[in-house]
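Incident review: delayed structure delivery

Summary: a single-chain prediction request sat in the queue longer than the usual turnaround. Root cause was a stuck worker, restarted by the on-call engineer. No data loss occurred. The affected request and its eventual output are reproduced below so the record is complete for anyone auditing the incident later.

Affected input:
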Amino acid sequence: MARPMNTLPVDEDQLVTLAAALRAVRARAGTPSLAEMSLRCGVCVASLSDAHGGRKLPTWRTVEGYLRACGVDPGTLRPSWERLRLAQRTEQADARHAAVLKRWASTREITPPRWVRDEAELAQLLDHMRRLCGLSLRDLASRRPGFSHHTYGAVLRGERPVTADMLAAVLHACGIPPTSARRWYLALLRIRPEETPRARGLVPDLSADASTPA
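Output delivered after worker restart:
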């Protein structure tokens, strides 16, 4: 038997609204236990519990698993989750990064701005991308297993260099199309020209004439 859930605080906050929507979905599905749901979707019980707890934004993988475990099309909550993710990221980012995040959300073209000339900023933008796509570090490692989630974390925190291979792994995990991916490689080469041979091995037609939005 499923244990009763704690009552959510009465709050108009979007995070609580998302959590309440997940609780409603579970109730309509007959309130399966979290253990049952975990078996159905492959997301751990703790993450499922946090998802409807209303205290922090779950990853998209967790929300998607929660909904699938309850027999619901994940697309029904994707727009709400994306709006909340964007709001959180822009609140936490400085003005320039917030503007980039808003452009990504409005155009769906996830490309680096031309002003990126620093490896730490490049890593931060890649982390924005990863989070905006709803991926945890473990999700990156699962989708592109050439690196551990610890390595992804170290690179995206700026503790280790962004290499061409690491960039390729993050872009692949986030589903960035080739045209947009080329712009990320060009940004990397402006910062770390020593990565040129490897980058051109990954993208043979890489050239410096591709324009990058500001």
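Verification: Residues 74 and 139 are 17 Å apart (CA to CA).
Action items: add queue-age alerting; document worker restart procedure.
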